[in-house]
Each structure stands twice: as C-alpha cells, then as structure tokens.
Write a structure and sequence with these properties.
- The protein is of the alpha+beta class.
- The chain has one domain.
- Helices cover about 55% and strands about 15% of the residues.
- The protein has four helices and two strands.
- A two-stranded antiparallel sheet has the order 1-2.
- It is elongated, with a radius of gyration of 18 Å.
- It starts with a strand and ends in a 7-residue tail after the last strand.
C-alpha cells in the first residue's frame, strides 16, 4: 500500500480504561451486556439518565483496578488497544 509504520502505541485512556470498566460490568451483569456504553451513547430520557447514574455508581468501585491495570499495561506496552502510525513512502508513485 506504500506505507511505512513509523510508530505504535497500545495505550489510549478512552479505550483501555473504559474498556476495563465495561468488561468488568459485563462480567458482573452478563444479562445486560454493554449497558453503560448504550446509556452513554444512546440514552436520552429521564429514565435513561437515572439508569446511567446507577451504572456509574456500580463502576466507581472498579475504577481503582481499571486505573492500575491501565498504568501497568501502558508501562509494559501491553495495552488492549493497538494504534499504528504510518507515513506514505516518499518513493511510492502508485498512489
């Protein structure tokens, strides 16, 4: 494709930290998968806002573990998100 990889990262707060929280909630409440995500992205009414408050309260005790996991995996370059940074090759005239 005419690209050279110039960098990589396995860390983003928005994915790694949140992903740990959502995955933990999914494990604790398997009958309501990704409920926090759905409330954050699609919740509109008063009832949804109240449910969101409840899910956030459930997530708070998990937060220290999510932060610890995020820091450990970021430090060891083993995070759950892979981002590649690429540059078009200077001598590639096919694109």
């Amino acid at each position: 494709m005419g690209l050279d990889i110039v960098g990589r990262s396995t860390f983003t707060v928005s994915q790694n930290l949140y992903g740990f929280l959502q995955s933990s909630l999914n494990k604790l409440f398997p009958h309501t998968p990704n409920r926090l995500y759905h409330l954050l992205t699609r919740g509109r009414g008063r009832r949804d806002r109240m449910a969101l408050v409840g899910w956030v309260l459930l997530a708070i005790p998990i937060l220290p573990f999510a932060v610890l996991e995020t820091l450990l995996t970021a430090n060891s370059n083993q995070g759950a998100t892979l981002t590649l940074y690429a540059r078009k090759r200077a001598n590639d005239n096919n694109l």
